[in-house]
Amino acid sequence: MTVTLLVITVIISVSVGFMYQLTKEPIEAANVVKQNFAIKAVLPDYDNSPLDDAYEIDNFDGAAEKLICYPGFVNGELSGIAVKTWTKNGYSGMIRMMVGFDPSGNIVNISVLEQKETPGLGTKITKPKFKDQYNGKNPSTNNLKMKKEGGEIDAITAATITSRAFSEAVERAYKSLEKAEKFEK
Known about the structure:
Layout: H1 2-42, E1 55-57, E2 67-74, E3 77-90, E4 93-101, E5 107-114, H2 128-131, H3 160-179
Antiparallel strand pairs: 1-2, 2-3, 3-4, 4-5
């Protein structure tokens, strides 16, 4: 009986290890494609490879997880910075997104990379009707809080927690870039 269980355990372990090795590279390749797509969606034109020029910056509030920046250049001049940012305060936890800024700190576009919000409610953060209202705004001069809190952003009906979390992640990206002195003065 013990030998049978041991043999079954070894076979299953080897199978899981084999499947991991088999799928590791395709998953990594898919993640690179997803990153490139998000960067392209949030940055203005660029002629470099933002993935190759990526760097990390500290979180403005001292949180351990660093933010990853992907700068875009045209003829050697900075055209924008895409920042992979996050918040743990979504209704269902972690939300990761890519926020694109021009050199002055204006938001170019936002792409949601990962979220587990309530289908039909919180998932609306991925829709242009919600996320595009941030485009063109500068967090230093625009109030990115919800309108019912005195801000400029229309919250998603019945998904206020998710809406607030989205704004928090955008502001995290901006404040971290500002602290790292990456914007034009």
